[in-house]
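[INFO] parsing input record for TetR family transcriptional regulator
[DEBUG] input buffer:
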Amino acid sequence: MVSQAELALAAALKNLVKHQPLDKITIEALSETAHVNRNTFYYHFSDIYDLLKWTFEHDVILQLQGDLSAKNWSEKYDLALTYVIDNQQLCLEALHSQRRDLLEKFLFELCAQMVHSVLLTIDDTIPADLSADLIDFYGSAIASQIIKWLITDCRAPKDLLVTRATAILDGTIEFITAKNQPSAF
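[DEBUG] output buffer:
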């Protein structure tokens, strides 16, 4: 169960990155802003980057993975892009921080879940190694697309990103899975 302290600390982090770089935010400033003491922070998180990771997971991953399927992945992707827009400063600070990998891993995990849901719907008998390769390749491609979009100040309409991802996933994965089916001979 999520505590009020965790939510307050996540909100404090989002607020503080609007005024200073993520790498410059202190536990003291976070605790003050969230109206909790330092011990409360350390009870829940090991450091600021642990809080950042929790914030991404709580805000997006847990919210989107529930009923993710090939039929609704583009809607879920749209919600994730909306989160990036609404939390653009947090995402940019994460991207420019010492722990850039947290944002990259977060985006990859999100995109990999979308690709996996599409794969399962298209062919749930796909060999595990091919499935892993497709998830890795297409998950990385879509995550990279989001990072490029973020770096360019989210200027392109998010609908364009959804259209691009749809072009990548729809048809291409069906073609690959069909091509890799064992022959009937």
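[INFO] The chain has a mean pLDDT of 89.
[INFO] shutting down worker
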